[in-house]
Design goal:
The chain has 736 residues and is of the alpha/beta class. The protein has 25 helices and 29 strands. It has four domains: 229 residues, Glycogen Phosphorylase B (Rossmann fold, 3-Layer(aba) Sandwich), CATH 3.40.50.2000; 207 residues, 3-Layer(aba) Sandwich (Rossmann fold); 170 residues, HAD superfamily/HAD-like (Rossmann fold, 3-Layer(aba) Sandwich); 72 residues, Trehalose-6-phosphate phosphatase related protein, domain 2 (Alpha-Beta Plaits), CATH 3.30.70.1020. The longest helix has 23 residues. It is elongated. Bound molecules: adenosine-5'-diphosphate-glucose. Adenosine-5'-diphosphate-glucose (ADQ) binds next to strand 12, strand 13 and helix 14.
Length: 736
């Protein structure tokens, strides 16, 4: 069985020390249930904080031993460090920022340092426990640096990361001073999961804008590997909620819980009254105050419901050490007091407010007994309470009102979806829910239930792990052509044994890295020396084959003993000879198209127009990446119709779109260069889309090498531009 390590800030267990004896009781949260569904296929271990910061090393060891029987590995921290990491950076910086509460965000260097340190602690624990090639699934915002830390030390691991909270839009995320480190930290993973496609989109946009990496659908292409990004909406343990709800409804009255008996009594006295339920952690992101204000507004707007409706509001104490949470508690207390004071009668209290945690069975009683679920978060990654409420409605009687700002709203379109800041809308939704015919309840509930039953938390967990598995086969596919030691040895030996060799080398992105402006990519001394020594070998013919114009290459390689092919194959110059035009072309079309391209330059800051003898190239490397990609699509679209019937082509290169005569390409030029000559070793190396023409058209026995791990017609890949020169050097040296 393959090993999987689950890493989260908190272990799913409660540890208590009773007169030196350690007691461990696993807590059965959603995540733990999800994980248990993959235990069948993997040998699993869970690494996390055990809920206490024991400083006595003997007791720590004892706790470790007690947890071992559940395959849990505790991470202990010093109290102060934990404060800065958990209450500090995690909950005073990341949590408010990712939930768009920018006014609450603290930027403290020492809490950031603690965050890094704790992530490194976790990394140590994982490395100590992970077998070769193990799967590691990291959870949530506390551990965003962990993937990169693991990747650096253990590239053999398959790393997944799932974020349980929203990923904010780029405009909000960019505020963070440590944004680059966080993005790079996350990109250490092979797979990154979010609850919704929106969060995925936000993340990809931040990656593109902040780090400039290329993104291909939902794949981030790094220099030497790629990262998959996807949406995995987390579900719940549907059967558990539905079955317990069913059991409770069939229970004899005397066996029912105290709270259920109270509610039963209440319904007996006021049979036409409806209960509205809200359950959340007491957190500013959950929109508790606006819910209360909206409830107040509802009673004002629809006075006919006075004495007919009660809001049952459960708020679980949370992060009570953080100032904003304490303030919020007072605000909520006050609002509840105010509303109850304003409307209450002898027989009616508008709000029943519980500030505490409840056991699972009590939650079920609340879910089944209340008629309307009212969940109004200002921002919420998913909101599982909404799903639990629906799953528990076994009689399909009940209405859910849900904020559009919760991830769950994306899947629960049948709910009454509201904007949590719009009291009018909430009041109207409450009215609608109060008078909705039961037929409609059933209809809405049953479609939501079907979906929740299918995409349960078990399925979610299996899907994510499957996603991690898939990255392996994808990697294998990509890397199968990668030049490893054996392939390299074979190429070198073929080179050594050949007497007449031909080398086609693309320039930009192959021999030199990309620069912000094309004219800055001049050959350096090291490169010239390398090319000279290759060309000096009498058995070699060296060809630089490029999309660049002949003036530039002429200037850079004047008098050199190599062949130059420029403008994608329009011109060729043999050593010591004059330039020859290999294709007869016309260029009068340039006059007509230039103004349209100049218009794109004007509207797209950072883009430039390069004019070559027989083509026009619009470069957008320096443009804001999203704008650049969007304009490139627009441009292609527009020019597609402009060039029709003109015998022209649109060539898409690396951050450049070029319009040129059709039929001209590097492939034709390479074939023309070979002509009737017999070479016993031909190699072609290139990184660009335009080099694919060479790979496709050149004779099959050519050693074609694509720079970058992407799909290609070439026979082999090297990971990046950095690998090209060392390979050429080895060729040169093996030539004798
Ligand atoms: P939370 O912010 O904690 O989770 P939520 O998804 O609603 O929010 O989960 C709360 C859980 O706690 C539910 O399973 C609920 O049953 C339980 N619970 C709430 N009040 C309780 C009480 N008084 N007593 C006992 N149990 C109670 C974060 C993100 C969410 C995301 C989840 C999962 O903020 O957006 O949905 O992670 O990814």
């Amino acid at each position: 069985m393959k090993q999987i390590l689950i890493i989260s800030n908190r272990l799913p267990v409660n540890v208590t020390i009773n007169e030196g004896e350690i007691e461990t009781v696993p807590s059965v949260g959603g995540l733990a249930t999800g994980m248990s569904s993959i235990y069948k296929y993997y040998s699993a271990k869970w690494i996390g904080w055990p809920g206490l910061n024991e400083s006595d090393s003997k007791i720590r060891t004892k706790i470790g031993k007690a947890l071992k029987k559940h395959e849990y590995i505790p991470v202990f921290m010093q109290e102060e460090l934990f404060e800065d990491f958990y209450y500090g950076f995690s909950n005073k910086t990341i949590w408010p920022l990712y939930h768009y509460f920018t006014q609450y965000v603290e930027y403290k260097k020492h809490t950031w340092e603690a965050y890094k340190k704790v992530n490194a602690f976790y990394a140590d624990q994982v490395i100590e426990n992970a077998e070769e090639g193990a799967y590691v699934w990291v959870h949530d915002y506390h551990l965003q640096l962990l993937p990169k830390m693991l990747r650096e030390k253990r590239p053999d691991l398959i790393i997944g990361f799932f974020l349980h909270i929203p990923f904010p839009s780029y405009e909000v995320f960019r505020i963070l001073p440590w944004r680059d480190e966080i993005i790079e930290g996350l990109l250490g993973a092979d797979l990154i999961g979010f609850h919704t496609y929106d969060y995925e989109r936000h993340f990809l946009s931040a990656v593109r804008r902040l780090r400039g990496y290329d993104i291909d659908f939902n794949q981030v292409n790094l220099d030497d590997r790629f990262v998959k990004v996807d949406a995995f909406p987390m579900g719940i343990d549907y059967e558990k909620f539905a079955n317990t709800a069913m059991k409770h409804q069939q229970m004899a009255v005397k066996d029912r819980s105290k709270i259920q008996q109270e509610i039963d009594k209440h319904y007996l006295m006021a049979p036409d009254q409806k209960l509205v339920l809200s359950i959340d952690r007491l957190d500013y992101s959950k929109g508790i105050a606006n819910r209360l204000e909206a409830f107040d507004y509802f009673l004002d707007k629809y006075p006919e419901f006075k004495e007919k409706v009660t809001l049952v509001m459960v708020a679980t104490p949370s992060r009570t050490a953080v100032a904003q949470y304490q303030q919020m508690k007072s605000e909520v207390d006050e609002l509840v007091g105010h509303i109850n004071g304003k409307y209450a009668s002898i027989n009616w209290t508008p709000i029943w407010y519980f500030y505490r945690s409840f056991p699972f069975d009590t939650l079920i009683d609340l879910y089944t007994s209340c008629d309307i679920g009212l969940l109004t978060p200002i921002r919420d990654g998913m909101n599982l309470v909404a799903k639990e409420f629906v799953a528990s409605k076994v009689d399909q009687k009940g209405v859910l009102i849900l904020s559009e700002m919760a991830g769950a709203a994306k899947e629960m379109g049948e709910a009454l979806i509201i904007n949590p800041n719009n009291y009018e809308e909430i009041a109207d939704a409450l009215n609608e829910a109060m008078i909705m015919p039961e037929e409609e309840h059933k209809e809405k509930m049953s479609s939501m239930q079907n979906r929740l039953q299918r995409y349960s938390v078990e399925k979610w967990a299996r899907d994510f792990v499957e996603g991690m598995e898939n990255t392996i086969s994808l990697k294998e596919k990509h890397y199968s052509k990668n030049i490893n030691t054996a392939i390299e040895k074979d190429i070198l030996s073929k080179y050594k044994n050949a007497n007449k060799r031909l080398l086609f080398l693309d320039y930009d992105g192959t021999l030199v890295g990309f620069q912000k402006r094309p004219e800055m990519a001049k050959p350096d001394k090291e490169l010239l020396k390398l090319l000279d020594s290759l060309a000096e070998d009498p058995k070699n013919e060296l060809v630089i084959i490029s999309g660049r114009d002949r003036e530039t290459l002429e200037k850079w390689f004047k008098g050199k003993p190599y062949t130059l092919i420029t403008d994608h194959g329009v011109w060729r110059k043999e050593p010591k000879e004059d330039w020859q035009m290999i294709e007869t072309l016309h260029a009068d079309w340039k006059e007509q198209l230039r103004p349209a391209l100049e218009f794109y330059v004007d509207r797209t800051p950072g883009s430039i127009l390069e004019e070559k003898s027989f083509s026009l190239a619009w470069h957008y490397r320096k443009v804001d990446p999203e704008l650049g990609n969007m304009r490139a699509i627009e441009l292609k679209d527009e020019f597609m119709s402009l060039i029709a019937n003109h015998n022209l082509d649109i060539l898409e290169g690396n951050k450049v779109i070029e319009i040129k005569n059709s039929g001209v390409n590097k492939g034709r030029a390479a074939v023309a260069k070979i002509g009737n000559n017999k070479y016993d070793f031909t190699v072609a190396i290139g990184d660009d889309w335009t080099d694919e023409y060479i790979f496709e058209e050149i004779p099959d026995d050519t050693i074609t090498i694509k720079v970058g791990i992407v799909k290609t017609a070439a026979r082999f890949n090297v990971e990046s531009q950095k690998d090209v020169r060392p390979l050429l050097k080895k060729l040169m040296e093996s030539g004798g």
